[in-house]
Every structure is written in structure tokens, then in C-alpha cells.
Design goal:
The structure holds 3 protein chains of 3 kinds. By secondary structure, chain A is mainly α. Chain A has helices at about 1-30, 35-40, 45-55, 60-70, 85-120, 125-140, 145-155, 175-185, 185-215, 215-225, 230-265, 270-280, 285-310, 315-320, and strands spanning about 80, 85. In chain C, the strands form 2 sheets. Chain C has a two-stranded antiparallel sheet with strand order 1-4. A two-stranded antiparallel sheet of chain C has the order 2-3. The chains are: A mainly alpha, B alpha+beta, C mainly alpha.
């Protein structure tokens, strides 16, 4: 078991390294660099000096090696665009992405699971049909489309603010004010992310409940005189939960990718938006840093999911161990 | 699978409902804000907080090493100059120098400094001026101001006979005279001397510097910088300037600059009243969005006049670029560029690209630059027939079955046009040009690039044609000589030539040199009119339309002196006032 | 299910191929006096062909139009001059007909997705079958690579890959390059399932029988194992297709896909990224509706009980 998890961990680290190195090297190969937009107004000699100062005139291998040396000490270099260390930028923005992702995950869970329990425990009726239709519809709204539609709705009606994570709050917002403001900016991006996930959860939970309800011990509990709702909540649901848990690992991955486009559409100042800006400005250390942290979060999520699954389901371990 | 039909049916029903709902809803007017009446306290001119926005964060607080807009804006708010050009009147005004005298040859200026102090109480003296010049001319500092404080490529001489007097000597005659010193942003010697001595000046006052390490001599002090969020500026109690009634400036207590990276988000914040003004003009297509707020009296839409930095279009005129390309024989010819000018209906261009909010132009100087604009330059106006005749004269004719022309050797009349991505007026302009040249049989491949990638190609000369814009901070052509002189780094169609490549470029060089060193303003204007004529005839850069510029400001802001150059309003941040809502009106905005 | 999926894919392909005949105008044709003109509502009068009232520009700066009630125009399919355009789905930022661009855009977007799907399915099928058949270190290596690609942060990789390629590329090259990138990230979804099926099938009697009759591995693969996976392949294709359509939309939306004059659903949506414009001109969201419809159709076809197939991840990744 330990060995299995260790192996998955090594795999994850390799992934982070490969992704970030590749993006650094690739960005370096692309035309243009950060000095380009300054160049128009500076004389060529000054641009050359600026390149030298930023270390952009060194050969590719030398740049890569010095960057790699820093990475070992968790130093991803300085962002040329923001003139700040890449690691602080990333930790700031990753926090914003995390806020968005966690809220979306909670939202998806809160919407998806109860509805799934409900529709899975019914054998028919208008309620179940409605849930199913809604679920198929929500499943068909990927984050790109969902965020565009929600932004349109908000811009049209003025119910919720569009764009960004907070309003311009002035110099000294109180905590309550700030939190309230954040809460008004969250629904659009969070819903855009959460809707398809909630639908996925609902479908899976419904199936799991259906299956669990057919288990003999649930029928037996009914026979002991337990009401249908109690039978499901007390017996069927805990059993069904195991298969639902396995989905969370996958969801972390899709949340992460989905948040990129949602952040771009709604100007949410997260990791995705940072990467987008860095790519546009050809800020190579920042691109590499973003890719590395992206790969890291994804790998960590997958690893956590693997671990969760391994604890829950012994077969996984035995299958993987050679 | 027996539920499938039912699901489908429900989906259909649901979408029908949704559609009906939408029809009903789109029939309704979009709901307005509750629109609570705003009650302003009596027109007090002092106090209040002005909130504005900033599209990108500063890379440094040191204006001597960075010319980007955020740093420039911060220096407008916190730093000072000896003299300044009043952006709205174009007159030279005293600033930290309260008076000056010029020598007879107008090459030596003796400036008398006023009693003033940095925000930490340290007196401002001639030493600060000497120190600033030393830092700017230090090659290790690599100052962006160095090239803009030169005359004929040589630095200025500076001496200080006493602590309140500075003597600046120009190495040659210079037409704009003392106005050149508007480029000089002063730096505090007591704070930055150590960095200059240690050779770390270019990194000093980076954005990581604690704000209490910074000192200012302008109307405001930076009191807080939250990276990625906002910059907060408080009134500088030691600011030297008084208003007409003798009250200390600035009027407002605080200026907050919210970092809003996205132009659309910025507009939304202006609409919602969260910011009082944006830091750039309102795009023509956004005017309709703001109009309802103007009608409700919440917003003022100021028309600043015709822009002075119009979008421009030019071909690569470096002979070496076309050496192996058969198209070079006609693409670099003046007649080809004149034909393109003839092919574009500038009125229609203005209608499409700027939704009608623009005026046709024929050269780089627009009517917005009243002092230097020449209305009588040669024009190659809309005429498809003339364009066809010019192209035929170049040997371009349709020699095969397709819709495009070919030259004598059979090469298709086709070129690539690079432009900035995400700039709506440039992208639309490029599309209009493509469509206007198509009926003539000239194919244009438009490629939108990120700004950095495009400029890189331009500097390398790796392009066929470019449509873009750049902003200049000065209206006097002598201060933008880089663009006009064939040796200049801003001579975009053929950068940095050792000797002028063409006869007309040599003529422009000569005229510009005379114009720069002449001290007679009428003579300078006459010489520059000639430059404009030669330019408009040879069209190294083709101009189509200059847009009218608008800026949106909350109606609570007053006493503004809007100008066409950035920062349009905050260049005179000390005299701006804001009205504060009375307590009863709270929540109205 | 297989037949329905095939029908769906065929309809999409036919629709996108038929764009030049169905679209009323050329995708690049801009009407300069009709920037952001709203959709015109067709009027049905008895049995004659439907007509519309032409639009007249009321305010150029504010982009307001009024319908001229006194005149009518025939729909473009029933004749009519092109200087009086008819916009059934409104016009975009350049005065181009959104309906025409939607149809031409289908050719680009759906065409690209179909092309990439076929590529991913073919490569994935062969890689998976090869791994399953050979077993041993080949199996190990192929599956490792597939695992690795599966957990890559796909959108970041695609972005970086596309960003480093030269931007000045003809549309056909962009098409091929983007398709190749999509194939590269899409094949493992197919390969994993195929390998599982092949591993299960390779020891079955009919394969043994074929082998004993002297069939080589290639023949067994093509004639026996791949057909056994057919159902799986169709399901995977149905799941990958909308994922790729979305991925193209995302790429073009952020400016790394097709260049502007090419009509694709992503380049059309890029305009909708401006939320002030979207609120005023909701018809520019038409491609979003089209994408929604395709994803919905896919979800209905690939029975709603197959939510956990790996293709879902590809879909949400975009």
C-alpha cells in the first residue's frame, strides 16, 4: 500500500517537472519576449542592456539550468511582467482559484448529492423526471458556455456584478463588507463550474442509490419496519457513498481545467487568468511557474484521490502492486 | 431506454417555456438601478476620496527607469518637475522652479527653485536636481529619460551656483527651449544617493519597496500598495502649491487606484459607480452602454477632441527585406502607397471603425494637435479609378482567371498585414482595408499578434506591413524627432538608417534639423508644414482616420482640465474636486 | 445506441459540409452600415414565402436600428439583392451575418472535431490493441504514456503548445496543427478501453481458433479484435467529439485558435467575451447555443447512465 502510493507520488513529481520544463523551453522558443513592448521607445542598446539584465541573452541551456537550480529551492524566478517573484504571485492567485474551486465543489455537492438521493430512490413521478431533465441539461453546459450564459444574464439584469473577484472597495473595507462583496461575485463563476459537476454527481448518486436499494439488507431493514426515507438515509446512502467518493479525484482535475476558461471569461484573478496573461506577455518564468503549479495541483488532487480510493477499495492496491 | 422519449419531450417543453420566458423578458426594458436620489452636501471643494482604475500594475515606482503608464501616472501624482507643460493649454508653467531666465541665445537657462520640501520634511534643493541629472545620464542606470533629455544627441550641462539656483546649458540651439525640461522627473537625493553609488539605482524603488521608504514632492503620497488590488494615495501635507484663494492643494483627501486588468470590467465598475473615472478613453462602441447613465445624471461623458495618436499603416521600406522578393519592385513604390490611399473611403472607414466618431486625416499630425496641424497637405482621396490607374502604371494587371492582380512576372499582388490582437479599432480597420483592396485585386492577409510579438518583428524588420498605433507624450515634433529622422529608432518603416535611403527622407532630415534648432516659432511651423507636405506626398505611413476621444467621469467629480494626452484627467490631480454625498443619500450609488 | 450515434455524427458532418449552399452570405462579407444589426423576424403571410422588414440605421454611434415597416424584403434563399441584407440571426461586430458564420463556422469547428476524433480513435484503437495483444513491456510502456497524458493539465499543455507555434499560419495549417494537438491528448481515452477489451478477448475461443488457423497478429487485430471493440469506439467517438468542439472554441476564444476572418465557433465567441457587448447583442452568443445543443444531443445519445466514461473528462477539460 505504502509502496503503491509512493510510486504514484514519484509519477506525480515527474509530471510536474516535465510539464514545467517543457513550458519554459517552449515559451523560450516562441518569438518575442518581455522587452519587445518596451523596445519601441528605447534605443536598441538599451534594449540589449535590459535583456542582459534580465538574463534573456544567455543561451537556452544556461537559462534552463539556472531556473532548474532555483526550482529545487522552490524559487521559480521573477516575473518579468509584474517584477515580483513568481512564487508569491502564484500563491496569491492559487488562493483565489482555490476559493473558486472549493466553493464550486461544495455547491456541486450540495446540489448534486441530495438530488441524486432523491431521484435514485424514486421509481417514477414528476419530481424524478424534472430532476433528470435538469440534470441532462446541466450536464450539457460546459464551463465555457455556462460562464458566458451567466455573464450575459448578470449583465442584462444587473442582479449580480460581472467581472473580477471584488468590487472597487475603496481603501478600507471592513471584513463583513469585503466578504459580502466576494459573495456577490462568486455565484457566476462558481455556478458555471459547479453545474456540470452537480449533474454528474446527481447521476452517479442516483445510480448508486438504485443499486444499494436492491441490496438485501436494505430490504430487510424495510421489513423491520423502517420507513422508506429512513431506510434509504440510514442504510442505502452510506453504502452508495463509497462509489461517489471515487469521483472526487476526477472532479478536481476537471475543476482545475474548467476554472481556466471561467477565470478568463469572468476576469477572476486566479491561476488560469495569470497563465493567460503570462502567455500573452511571453513572461516565460511565469508561464513555467503557472504550468508547474497547475501540474502540481492536478497531480496532488489525483494522488489524493488515488489514496482515497486505495483506502476505500483494497482491490486497487492488489491490482497495482506487481 | 424507455424513458428516453419522455426525457426528450420534457426537454422540448422546457426549452419552449424558456424561449417564451425569454421573449417576454426581452420585451421588458432592462431594469434600471433603483436610482435613489443623490443628495450632495453643499459644494465643498475640499476633502473626499477619488477612486479611479489602473489597467496594469506598476513594475517600479522609479520613473527614471520605466516609462510605462502605471509608473508615469504614479509619478504625476507623487513626483515633481522643475517646469511643466500645461497639458490643456500647452503653455509652459512654473513648478518646482518658480521662475527662470533665458540667455540671449536661448541655450542657457537659470532657474530659481521655490521653497519646497519632500514629504518627509527634507528640504528640496539644487542638489536634488544635480543628483537627478547625474542618475539619468549614468550609463549603468539605463534611464529611459536619458534620450529625451538630449539636444542633438548630447546631454545637457547642469550647475548649481547656490542651493536655490540651477543653471541648465544646452549643447546647441533647440527650438522648444525650456519645454524640454518637462521630460525631467526629479528624484530625491537623500533617499536614492546610496543606490546610485552602489550601482543599484535601476532596482531602487521597485514595487517591493515599503511605502514609507518612498518620499514625494507632488500632491500625494503613496500610503498603501496592495499588489494586484489597489494603490492608495493620501494628501501630501507638505505639497507646495496653493489654489487661487490661497488654500493648500490638493483638494481631495485621497486617491484610490483600483487595479482592474480588464477593459470590460473597468467599464462595468464605472457603470456601477465603483470608480469615478477610467484611465483611458471610452471606446466608441461603449458609448451606448454609458448613455443611459449620462441621461440619469450619474455620469459625464467628456469629448476631448480629436485624438493625436491615430492608428497608422505602413509597409516595410527596408530595401534588404525585399531583395529576394519579386514583389519588392512595386510594393515599395510611392505609387503603390498612393493607390492604397485612393482605395480607402475615409468617411466609410470612420463609420465602420469608429462608428462615425472620427475625422479623415492625411498625415501623422491630426487636427487634435492644433498648433502643428497643417490642413493643406497633398491628399490622395477616395477614387477607385485613380487607384486602378496607379496600379496599372506599376505593371499590375489581372493576368489569370482569379480575382487578384499579378505583376509582369506573374507574382500575385498580395501582402501580409500585422496588427495588434484585441484592439477593436485596429482589427476592424485592418478588415476594412482588406475589404477595400479586394475589389482592386490586391489581397491582404491580416494577422493579429500580441503587442510584444508584433513590436519584435517590427524592430527586426521581419514584416511586410503593419497597422498599429503608438502613443507619444509630446505634441511638439522636435520632441518626437525619432520618428521623423531617418536615423531615428522610431522611424518605423526603415529604422536607424546610416544615411537616408531616399531623396525625400534626406529632405525631411534637413528640414527637421533646421526646425529643431530654430528659435523662431513661426519659422519652425513653416518648416514643419513643409515636412508634412513631403510626408503626405510620399506616404511612408498611411493614415486614414483620427478618432474623437471621449472619457467617462462620475458626475461627482469637478474642476477637471481634461486633455487629449494620457493621463487625461489626473495630470492635474491637485485641482480636481469631488462632491461627497450627504449622509441621507448614502447607498444611492 | 450505435446507430443513433452514427446518425448524429453523419448529420453534423452533412450540415457542416453543406454550409456554402445553406448560408445566405459569404462568411467574410461585412455590411458596413449594419454593425451589430439585430435579428430580423420573418413574417409569414399565408402561403407565400416569408419576408422581413428591412432595417434602417437610426444612430450609428449607439448602433440602434429601426425596422422599416413600409417595406418588405424576401429571405435571401428566395432571391433578393445583397445590398439590402437580411439577418435572421443578427449581424456581428463587422456587420457579418451571424447565421452564415454559424454555418461556415460549423464547417471549421465540427470539421476539425470530427477529423481529430477520427484520428484519436484510430490511433487510440491501434495503440490499445497493440499493447493488449503484445503484453509485456510494450503494454507497460504504452499504458504508462497513456496514463501520463491523461493526467496532464490538458488545457495548459494545449495553450502552451499552440502559443509557441508561429502565429502567422494559413488556416489550413492551423487546422492540421490543432487537430494533431487534439489527437495527441485524445488517444489515451480510447486506448485504455480498447486494451482492456483486447486483453479480455485475446484468449477467447474464436481468437484462439483464428490463431491456430495461422492468422498473424495483424490479421487477428484487424479482423477480430478491433471489430470486438466497435461499440466502445463509437461511444468514445461520441464523447470526444463535443470535447474537441469545446476545445477549439476555448482556444479560439482566448486567441490561440483560428485567426479572425476564418469563421469558427470559437472566433465568433471571442467577440462575446466582451460582456458589455453581450448584454446588448445577445445574438452573438449563437455559437454557444449551437455547442450546447451538440453536447446535449451527445449526452442524450450516449445514454445518461454512462456518466463516468473517461470522455467526460475530455469534455469538461475544454
Amino acid at each position: 500500500m505504502g509502496r503503491y502510493l509512493l510510486r504514484r507520488l514519484g509519477f506525480a513529481l515527474l509530471l510536474v517537472l516535465v510539464v514545467s520544463s517543457a513550458s519554459l523551453l517552449l515559451t523560450r522558443l516562441a518569438p518575442g519576449d518581455i522587452t519587445s513592448d518596451q523596445a519601441l521607445s528605447l534605443d536598441p542598446a538599451a534594449v540589449a542592456r535590459m535583456r542582459a539584465e534580465l538574463g534573456l541573452d544567455r543561451p537556452l541551456a544556461a537559462q534552463y539550468l539556472s531556473w532548474l537550480g532555483g526550482v529545487v529551492q522552490l524559487d521559480f524566478g521573477r516575473s518579468l511582467l509584474y517584477a515580483r517573484p513568481v512564487s508569491t504571485l502564484i500563491s496569491e492567485r492559487a488562493l483565489n482559484t482555490a476559493v473558486l474551486a472549493v466553493v464550486a465543489l461544495v455547491l456541486a455537492t450540495v446540489i448534486g448529492l441530495p438530488l441524486g438521493v432523491y431521484s435514485g430512490s424514486r421509481s417514477g413521478g414528476i419530481g424524478r423526471a424534472t430532476v433528470r431533465v435538469l440534470s441532462v441539461l446541466a450536464l450539457s453546459v460546459p464551463p465555457l458556455i455556462g460562464s458566458l450564459a451567466l455573464v450575459f444574464l448578470a449583465a442584462r439584469t444587473g442582479w449580480l456584478p460581472v467581472g473580477g473577484m471584488t468590487s472597487a472597495l475603496g481603501a478600507d473595507p471592513s471584513w463583513a463588507h469585503w466578504l459580502g462583496d466576494l459573495a456577490r461575485h462568486l455565484p457566476i463563476p462558481a455556478l458555471a463550474l459547479a453545474l456540470p459537476l452537480a449533474a454528474t454527481l446527481e447521476r452517479l448518486q442516483a445510480q448508486a442509490i438504485e443499486k444499494a436499494s436492491r441490496e438485501p439488507f436494505v430490504a430487510a431493514s424495510r421489513a423491520r419496519g423502517l420507513g422508506p426515507v429512513q431506510a434509504i438515509v440510514r442504510h442505502a446512502w452510506p453504502v452508495s457513498l463509497r462509489s461517489v467518493l471515487g469521483l472526487y479525484g476526477v472532479m478536481i482535475g476537471s475543476l482545475f481545467s474548467g476554472s481556466f476558461v471561467v477565470e478568463v471569461v469572468t476576469s477572476w484573478p486566479g491561476l488560469g487568468r495569470l497563465m493567460y496573461d503570462a502567455l500573452k506577455a511571453r513572461d516565460l518564468y511565469l508561464v513555467a511557474g503557472c504550468a508547474a503549479s497547475g501540474a502540481f495541483f492536478l497531480a496532488a488532487g489525483t494522488w489524493a484521490a488515488d489514496a482515497l480510493l486505495a483506502f476505500a477499495d483494497p482491490r486497487v492496491r492488489s491490482q497495482e502492486a506487481p | 431506454m424507455n424513458r428516453q422519449p419522455r426525457i426528450l419531450l420534457s426537454v422540448l417543453l422546457l426549452s419552449l417555456f424558456a424561449f417564451m420566458g425569454w421573449r417576454w423578458w426581452s420585451g421588458q426594458q432592462p431594469p434600471n438601478d433603483s436610482g435613489t436620489e443623490i443628495v450632495f452636501s453643499d459644494a465643498s471643494t475640499r476633502g473626499g476620496v477619488l477612486t479611479s482604475s489602473l489597467r496594469s500594475e506598476p513594475r517600479t515606482f522609479n520613473r527614471l527607469v520605466d516609462r510605462n503608464f502605471p509608473t508615469d501616472l504614479i509619478s504625476h501624482l507623487t513626483q515633481g518637475k522643475l517646469i511643466r507643460i500645461n497639458r490643456s493649454t500647452q503653455e509652459i508653467e512654473p513648478a518646482l522652479a518658480e521662475s527662470w531666465t533665458a540667455s540671449a541665445d536661448n541655450q542657457t537657462f537659470t532657474l530659481k527653485l521655490r521653497e519646497a520640501a519632500w514629504s518627509d520634511g527634507t528640504p528640496f534643493t539644487a542638489d536634488d536636481v544635480l543628483f537627478t541629472f547625474k542618475a539619468i545620464y549614468d550609463p549603468k542606470v539605463n534611464s529611459v529619460l536619458a534620450s529625451s533629455l538630449q539636444v542633438n544627441g548630447k546631454p545637457l550641462g547642469v550647475t548649481a551656483p547656490d542651493a536655490r539656483t540651477v543653471v541648465v546649458t544646452y549643447p546647441g540651439a533647440f527650438g522648444p527651449g525650456i519645454a524640454l525640461l518637462d521630460n525631467l522627473t526629479l528624484a530625491p537625493k537623500h533617499k536614492l544617493e546610496a543606490a546610485l553609488a552602489a550601482g543599484t539605482f535601476s532596482k531602487a524603488w521597485g514595487v517591493a519597496t515599503p511605502v514609507n521608504e518612498l518620499v514625494s514632492i507632488g500632491p500625494f503620497v503613496l500610503s498603501r500598495y496592495e499588489a494586484g488590488q489597489r494603490l492608495v494615495f493620501d494628501r501630501n501635507p507638505r505639497y507646495w502649491k496653493k489654489d487661487a484663494s490661497g488654500a493648500a492643494l490638493p483638494h481631495v483627501d485621497q486617491i484610490v487606484l483600483e487595479v482592474v486588468p480588464d477593459q470590460n470590467a473597468e467599464l462595468v465598475r464605472l457603470q456601477a459607480g465603483q470608480i469615478d473615472m477610467m484611465q483611458q478613453q471610452v471606446r466608441p462602441e461603449d458609448i451606448a452602454t454609458l448613455r443611459p447613465l449620462v441621461d440619469q445624471g450619474k455620469l459625464q461623458l467628456l469629448e476631448l477632441g480629436v485624438g493625436t495618436d491615430p492608428d497608422l499603416f505602413f509597409f516595410n521600406l527596408r530595401p534588404q527585406h525585399w531583395a529576394k522578393d519579386p514583389r519588392g519592385s512595386w510594393i515599395t513604390r510611392r505609387e503603390f502607397r498612393q493607390a492604397i490611399s485612393h482605395a480607402v473611403d475615409r468617411e466609410a472607414f470612420a463609420n465602420t471603425v469608429f462608428l462615425g466618431a472620427g475625422v479623415p486625416i492625411w498625415g501623422p499630425v491630426t487636427p487634435g494637435n492644433q498648433k502643428w496641424f497643417s490642413p493643406n497637405v497633398p491628399r490622395y482621396g477616395f477614387s477607385v479609378d485613380k487607384a486602378r490607374a496607379l496600379l496599372a502604371g506599376l505593371g499590375l494587371a489581372n493576368r489569370d482567371a482569379d480575382e487578384w492582380l499579378e505583376d509582369e512576372k506573374g507574382t500575385e499582388a498580395r501582402f501580409t498585414l500585422l496588427t495588434y490582437r484585441g484592439n477593436s479599432s485596429l482589427e476592424r480597420g485592418a478588415a476594412v482595408l482588406r475589404e477595400d483592396l479586394r475589389p482592386l485585386g490586391i489581397a491582404v492577409d491580416v494577422v493579429a499578434l500580441e503587442q510584444g510579438a508584433l513590436v519584435e518583428r517590427m524592430l527586426k524588420g521581419d514584416f511586410e506591413s503593419i497597422a498599429f498605433f503608438f502613443s507619444s507624450s509630446n505634441l511638439d515634433p522636435a520632441m518626437t524627432a525619432d520618428f521623423w529622422l531617418s536615423s531615428g529608432s522610431g522611424h518605423i518603416w526603415n529604422i536607424g538608417q546610416a544615411t537616408p535611403a531616399t531623396e525625400w527622407e534626406k529632405q525631411i532630415d534637413d528640414l527637421m534639423q533646421q526646425m529643431t534648432s530654430s528659435l523662431d516659432q513661426v519659422e519652425r511651423k513653416r518648416l514643419f508644414d513643409q515636412v508634412q507636405n513631403i510626408f503626405a506626398e510620399n506616404l511612408p505611413v498611411i493614415y486614414f482616420v483620427a478618432p474623437r476621444m471621449y472619457i467617462g467621469v462620475s458626475s461627482r467629480v469637478g474642476s477637471m482640465a481634461p486633455t487629449i494626452l494620457r493621463p487625461q484627467l489626473l495630470w492635474s490631480s491637485d485641482t480636481i474636486t469631488v462632491r461627497t454625498p450627504a449622509p441621507s443619500g448614502q447607498g444611492g450609488r | 445506441m450505435t446507430r443513433r450515434a452514427a446518425l448524429f455524427v453523419a448529420t453534423l458532418a452533412a450540415l457542416s459540409l453543406a454550409a456554402p449552399w445553406l448560408a445566405p452570405y459569404d462568411a467574410g462579407l461585412g455590411f458596413r452600415d449594419f454593425l451589430h444589426a439585430p435579428p430580423m423576424r420573418p413574417l409569414f403571410q399565408g402561403f407565400s414565402a416569408p419576408v422581413v422588414h428591412p432595417l434602417v440605421l437610426a444612430d450609428r454611434l449607439e448602433q440602434r436600428f429601426e425596422a422599416d415597416q413600409s417595406r418588405t424584403l424576401p429571405l435571401p434563399w428566395f432571391g433578393g439583392a445583397t445590398d439590402q441584407p437580411v439577418f435572421l440571426l443578427g449581424a456581428d461586430n463587422f456587420g457579418r451575418d451571424v447565421l452564415s458564420r454559424l454555418l461556415y463556422g460549423a464547417r471549421t469547428s465540427v470539421g476539425l472535431a470530427l477529423f481529430a476524433t477520427i484520428g484519436a480513435v484510430v490511433i487510440g484503437a491501434f495503440a490499445g490493441a497493440w499493447a493488449g495483444l503484445r503484453g509485456g513491456w510494450i503494454d507497460d510502456a504504452v499504458m504508462r504514456v497513456a496514463d501520463f497524458v491523461l493526467i496532464l493539465p490538458v488545457i495548459y499543455v494545449v495553450l502552451v503548445l499552440r502559443a509557441v507555434l508561429p502565429l502567422v499560419l494559413p488556416a489550413s495549417t492551423v487546422f492540421l496543427l490543432v487537430a494533431c494537438i487534439f489527437v495527441a491528448v485524445g488517444w489515451p481515452f480510447v486506448a485504455k478501453g480498447v486494451r482492456a477489451i483486447v486483453v479480455a478477448e485475446r484468449d477467447r475461443e474464436y481468437v484462439q481458433a483464428a490463431r491456430s488457423l495461422g492468422a498473424g497478429p495483424g490479421r487477428i487485430l484487424v479482423h477480430h479484435l478491433i471489430p470486438a471493440c466497435f461499440g466502445h469506439l463509437v461511444v468514445q467517438a461520441t464523447l470526444l467529439l463535443p470535447g474537441f468542439i469545446l476545445a477549439e472554441a476555448t482556444l479560439s476564444f482566448v486567441g490561440l485558435g483560428f485567426p479572425d476572418p476564418i469563421a469558427s465557433w470559437g472566433t465568433m465567441l471571442a467577440e462575446a467575451g466582451n460582456y458589455n457587448a453581450v448584454a446588448r447583442f445577445p445574438w452573438t452568443l449563437a455559437p454557444a447555443v449551437a455547442i450546447f445543443a451538440i453536447v446535449l444531443a451527445t449526452n442524450l445519445i450516449a445514454s445518461p447512465d454512462r456518466k463516468l466514461s473517461p470522455g467526460r473528462k475530455a469534455g469538461s477539460a475544454a
